[in-house]
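thread from #wetlab-drylab

HS: before we spend reagent money on co-crystallization trials with protoporphyrin IX containing FE, can we at least see a predicted complex? here's what I'd submit
DV: go for it
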Amino acid sequence: MNTPAPPLARQLRDATRDAHRDLDHHPALQCLLATTLTREAYVASLLALYPAHAALEHRVCREIARLGLSLQVPRRLPHLADDIETLGLAPEASASDPGHPPGSLATLAGELYVLEGSRLGGRVIAERLRRTLGPDVPHAFFSLDMAPGEWQRRLAELEALCPPGNQDAAVVGAREAFVRFRHQLDTRFRAIPTHPAPAVETGPAVDL
Ligand code: HEM
């Protein structure tokens, strides 16, 4: 039987449902699920994901260190860099996040929810990639799956991390993390057409 999600987890899910839908419909991510995906379009998507994921992962890890916590968070950025490099490109160094002030335990709980939750869609994406681009396509970033019970344990950790009465601050942390992620995709994604360009009407030939 599934354990019911802790209250903060339910609040975070409800408060960010629209933000998630918005993000997973972003062209940079939607193209990953398209049957017409090409390797070029896949690389374009990974190149946009790199700075978005880097900013979130760095921020969460920095805050964990700053607040002296012993939370363990798997680093997925090196896998993303490896995938991009195996596909023949170099990931662009992520800009640090100088303007963003330090947060609190509650905002960290919200940000960690977004970072770790983003692993949940990976299995679906990895399966699609194997089907459209073949079993050899590098997709380590999307393949760091959650072990059984891992997400439930993470949600319990978030519940314990967020001080009582600070759930709204956790929601703000999660919402802002989604907004920043989306902003990175908006600014860094260069769409590659996945369909051949339509034939251009050239009109009758003219003798020169
Ligand atoms: C095409 C891209 C994506 C797909 C297909 C996708 C798909 C999914 C799926 C299927 C789940 C639910 C898994 C389950 O309940 O077992 C999920 C959960 C989640 N995803 Fe995504 N996702 C995508 C991108 C992202 C991104 C980029 C982020 C954040 C940066 C994100 C954050 C989350 C979070 C926080 C949850 C947890 C929701 C909850 O509380 O249940 N996802 N995603």
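DV: Residues 39-66 form the longest helix (28 residues).
HS: ok that's useful, forwarding to the group
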